[in-house]
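Support reply, case 0932

Customer input (verbatim):
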Amino acid sequence: MHIQLGEIEIVVTHKAIKHVHLSVHPPLGRVTLVAPTDTCIDVVRAYAISKLGWIREQQIKLRNQAREMPRQFIEGESHYLWGHRYLLSIVEQDVKPSVTLDHRCIRLQVRPGSNQSKCAEVIHNWHKELLHQVIPVFIRHWEERLSVKVAAYFLQHMKTRWGSCNPRKGHIRLNTELVKKPKHLLEYVIVHEMIHLIEPTHNDSFITILDEHYPHWREVRVELNALPLTAEEWQVND
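Our regenerated output:
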């Protein structure tokens, strides 16, 4: 169901929840509204109208948000790791490609004549190695806190969300782009997806669990949304 308020289109769904949830999603300001099952459309429309000022304010913030340029993998280019900026140094040697971190420099070693695609592949694989070093630590900590078990996690370069969960299989999936963000933002996404093992939907029960175990999640989500977007269009899974 859709509501059109001037230039603003709002996607409306009804769920078994107690309160209305209105969200403005990055990167372009898509608006969704989730209402309790028995809420009539006139009440939903009236609520949305009362929030028009807030919706427009959030959309302006998102549209003004910084956006990263596509990486070309050239000498001296800026790259981000765990929220910090590094300069790329490229070394061509006829040995197995590798990546090392040296103070504020990411040293990419590739074979002579390697193209941009090959450099991107080497960096991407390195990113996954770094994530594999950190994610299991977070998962073990939160398995104990939440009394849940993650059967498996997967890394994927996803275009539309930071994470996802398959509650039936006990699997969570995480976006490899999270390696560029501060580690506490990665932890937030992990906690969010692990709570879906308890409550699959974003209902009041889900919010209650999140409030109890990760009370500052709203501030962290704002921080994640406020960071520069990549050249592609990402969306927080909220």
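We compared this against your earlier run and they match. Two observations from our side: Helices lie at 41-50, 52-63, 116-146, 183-195, 204-213, 217-226. Residues 74 and 178 are 22 Å apart (CA to CA). Please reopen the case if you see a mismatch on your end.
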